[in-house]
Amino acid sequence: MYSIISVGRQTDKAWVIDDDGVRVRKAGLSDLPDLILLEGEAFGARRWEQAFMREMMCREGVQTLLVEGGAVLAYVMFSVSRPFETVEVLSLAVSPSLRRRGLAKDLMARVESLAAEEARTVALCVRPDNDGAVNLYVSLGYKVLALCPGYYEDGGDAYMMVKHLE
Ligand SMILES: CC(C)(COP(=O)(O)OP(=O)(O)OC[C@H]1O[C@@H](n2cnc3c(N)ncnc32)[C@H](O)[C@@H]1OP(=O)(O)O)[C@@H](O)C(=O)NCCC(=O)NCCS
Asked: Which of 19, 26, 100, 125 has the smallest count of CB within 10 Å of its CB?
């Protein structure tokens, strides 16, 4: 039923993707309730509402990958713009109980790998005070291109970060 993107093993971390029943696959609208649960756990009051997430998932060029193992453990949503040869990461979240095990790093690597054929740049926005996420992106080679004042709905600023793919 699902299109499994890949399976593999991360031997340098406790987290293993293979016959433990943990896998990465493309998400569809039927995953929305589970994605929303994770969204609430990960972002709290700043979570996306279900209607907004649905709208995002339906936008042209938007793809969502999720990690599942019993429940949805992590997801990343991104958008491919062929004319601009750019991929924009729209959202990324990992279940609080499974953080610092390389899940986000793995999902970002998959985005970059899928993006490489159609894009030269990956861009994203992140709150400057989101130290974990900023550290993650810096560790993956992203650089701050600009500070965007009042970018978020609540008036919060954003860093726009970019990485040029090889
Ligand atoms: C940010 C987030 C996605 C990171 O997910 P994760 O699976 O824990 O990240 P990883 O395990 O892949 O981390 C890879 C590297 O990123 C950096 N990093 C990740 N989380 C960090 C934290 N809380 N503090 C400092 N560095 C962090 C580290 O360099 C880490 O490598 P290390 O564990 O070997 O030191 C996760 O904390 C999350 O879901 N946060 C809430 C939602 C959110 O802020 N999303 C991003 C919106 S832009």
From this structure: 19
